[in-house]
Amino acid sequence: MAISTTAETILSEEQRVFYREHGYLQLDSFVDEVWLAALREASQEFIELSRQITESNKVLDVEPDHTSGAPRLRRLISPLDHHDTFYRFTMEGPPAQLAMDLLGGPVRFHHSKLNYKWSGGGEEVKWHQDIQFWPHTDFTPLTIGVYLDDVDGEMGPMGVLPGSHLGRLYDLYDADGSWAGALSEADVATLDLGAMAWLEGPAGSVTVHNCCMVHGSLPNNSSRARPLLLQTYSAIESYPVAGIGANGVTGRNGGTIVGGSPSQMLEIDGRVLHGAPDWSRKGAPTIFGSQQKDG
After folding, report:
1. Confidence at 290, pLDDT banded by 50, 70, 90
2. Partners of residue 144 on adjacent β-strands
3. Per-residue pLDDT band at 261 (split at 50, 70, 90)
């Protein structure tokens, strides 16, 4: 599946170099008010929908003390699968254009989510890297976040450790072998937390971070929720590794090519190959049918 959209030059060369060297970008007020209003309206629909549930489901992840009268959302899962506004924004709008600019051409969409980090103690996100959750055949995947409202230091903005995308890939399992999804206390103790860049900004600001970046966020101790819309893309020749982490549950639009057509080209250990078509949706033919051109 492919989305046809024309790539535009958005960033300066200095910004591209900064991303390559530091592993992140922050672009204040990048998304205009027209898009913001539409995204907020769509988001509000799901907040109202959440009043009908008492526990998390496949669309909405809610905090344990969520109620109809006092909703406390953690996440809208794969928003573009559930609302056309999110679909158009992610596949054709500013984040798609930004991803194509940073990655130098058509991109492969992976997944999206809307993290709310509710007011009055909305949960922290511990220090982690993304690539362990959904490994790819390279390290081009990046995540673009959009602040739907103003975000200040009291609201638990995302913190990133500049340059950490070029360093160690941490083990995110606990000592007992269970999946923790976060760095161990011992590994956190080795980080220079004083070097963290805390990405505050006005509504419409965009954050970009590489899949290997160490990042996280503190609880939201303000009286306002901090909705952050996130979408992940990779270079077109980058492929998620099946059978590991979230790669099999990214939503029905996972794998969509934005700004081009699937090429099925990839490089492994310096060797380039042209892979077979993607048969995951319609089923694979037999080798006999392909070679004999049956049908």
Report:
1. confident
2. 208, 231
3. confident
The total number of residues written for the chain in this structure: 295
Mean pLDDT of the chain: 92
Q: Could you give the CA distance from residue 273 to residue 237 in angstroms, rounded to a whole number?
A: 11
**Rounded-to-integer distance, Cα 72 and Cα 170, Å:** 31
Helices (H), 30-93: 33-50, 84-92
Q: Could you say which DSSP state residue 290 is in?
A: H
Strands 2-3 and 257-258: parallel
What is the pLDDT confidence band of residue 176, given thresholds at 50, 70 and 90? very high
Distance CA 173, CA 64 (A): 24
d(CA 46, CA 40): 10
Q: What is the pLDDT of residue 6?
A: 60
Helices 84-92, 94-103: axis angle to 10 degrees equals 20
Tokens at 198, concatenated: 């805390």
Main-chain dihedrals φ then ψ at residue 178, nearest 5 degrees = -85, 150
Categorise residue 83: left if φ over 0, alpha if ψ from -120 to 50, beta otherwise: beta
Going from N- to C-terminal start, the domains of the chain cover 2-265
Q: 């996100």: which residue's tokens?
A: 125
- Helix (H) / strand (E) element for 95: namely helix 94-103
Q: Evaluate if residue 75 carries a pLDDT over 90.
A: yes
- Give me the amino acid identity at 186: A
Per CATH, the number for 2-265 is 2.60.120.620
CA pair distance 59, 226, nearest whole angstrom? 19
